[in-house]
Amino acid sequence: MRRVLITGISGGLGRLVARRLHGRVEVLGVDRAPWRRPPKGIRIHPLDLRKKKFEDLIRTERPDAIVHLGFVRHFRTEPALRHEVNVLGTRRVLEYAVEYGVRQVVVFSSSYVYGALPENSYYLDEDAPLNVSRTYPEVRDLAEVDMLATAFLWRHPDLGVVVLRPVNILGPTVRSAISQYLRMEYVPTVLGFNPMMQFVHEEDVADAIVLALEHELRGIFNLVGPGAVPLHVAIRETGGVPVPLPEFVLRRTIRRLFRWRLFPFPDGAVDFVKYPCTLDGRRFVAETGFRPRHSLPDVFAKFGRGDDAWR
Questions:
Q1: DSSP run (H or E) holding 199
Q2: What is the pTM of this model?
Q3: Distances (CA, A) of 246 to 99, 231, 232
């Protein structure tokens, strides 16, 4: 493998992956957002995945692998636009990969695709159904992306599609829903519930993506960190104070605040701090030998409430 294209390269995880690959392979990336001072030798193309120029780039550069991180994960955009970027954007990445002879595509999914349900068993494996649309329809695009990539995996045996489903990612550069939640000073929780939750440091996730490339993986893999803790422990270890509220009060408050754009995610997310959604990551470990370098105390200590990593 000599050339890797990273979509969403200007995001926190994209930068971490690019820096790990830099000097080992030729790295180029696409993103609508700028990366002002990338390492010398990394070429950044300010492109939209939905535009013709993105296809032109793949046709002319002919990357050996694509790491697809170019998703909209927040709720500040309209749902239709989020769906178009995430689902149709992924379809184009996969179609162009087939057409122009890309050997491997790493599609970055999420543990959220399984959904947080009262009947969930602990440590779901990769064969568990993707149920998130049942209770959290605002993120059904995540499940659609995952299923789309899985379909390409089986339809195109010559293309090494890898679907990675990481647990909650924490770190100074990641702006996920869970990181925004834990950055609150007073963190609302559901009265009477304290589910087990798994976390992984963003640097370990970047290492795992590189391992998936090095081992030329093909298939679907959960990606877990060093362990699980009750939600209230995670809140305290990251510097917050848990504030248990009756569920109907919490949901109604979040629903109103989200509608007024005063809260970062809709009330469907409440299920993820009420019921467990823990994953079994043994398949990825068996294939790659992956071991997270950051312990849970380290993950929480390096959580980073500041914005220093956005330099």
A1: strand 196-201
A2: 0.94
A3: 53, 16, 16
